Amino acid sequence: MQPKQVHNWSYSKESQGYILVFDAHFISEIPLEIMNITFFDLKPNSIKLLKVLLENLIEESKLNDNLREKSIVSGINFLLLHLTRITKDLELNKKYKPITLLKFSKLVADTISKNLTVKDYADQLHLTVEKLNELCKENYGQNPKNIILEKKITEAKRLLYFTDLSIKEIAFQLGFEDSSYFSRIFKLKTKLSPSNFKST
């Protein structure tokens, strides 16, 4: 999942596995190839390798010496490198979104609090507005303006759910100069007002 993405998990009784939550400083280290893949179908040898690695990382986390953190970081880096190698072997990788769109997605997430235009993003990506529109419609089925707005609404949901910020503060934090306009857009997208969403 992308950073700050609102999510929910539902498990069957037979579910087994591990969940990795990366600290903010790790996000910049995660290869874009991995960020673009929703799931991996792992081969038996990869499952065996990663299972042992994750079990070792858990054991390392229980230690209390000055090598623990370096060992864990090295283990996670190895895991990311192994997954990156898998992505390069996938035939389906050719169908994944262009690297430019991954950069666009990350750029929107990094500037979520700013009121940037589609042209601002296109300029930072060294594209024309027309080319960015074309890429977004081809791969996401919607234009860049809608994608930016969707990400702002997703972040608004997170802030409403997990913080005590007022609706006005959240609107300002997401680059909306008018909180009433923010409330109208939020309701249009979610069918709920911000206050109703917060109370559900």
UniProtKB/TrEMBL annotation:
Domain of life: Bacteria
Annotated PROSITE patterns: HTH_ARAC_FAMILY_1, HTH_ARAC_FAMILY_2
Pfam families: HTH_18
Gene3D superfamilies: Homeodomain-like
Domain HTH araC/xylS-type: 102-200
PANTHER family, A to Z: ARAC-FAMILY TRANSCRIPTIONAL REGULATOR (PTHR43280), TRANSCRIPTIONAL REGULATORY PROTEIN (PTHR43280:SF32)
Protein name: Helix-turn-helix domain-containing protein
Organism: Flavobacterium jejuense
Native organism taxonomy: Bacteria, Pseudomonadati, Bacteroidota, Flavobacteriia, Flavobacteriales
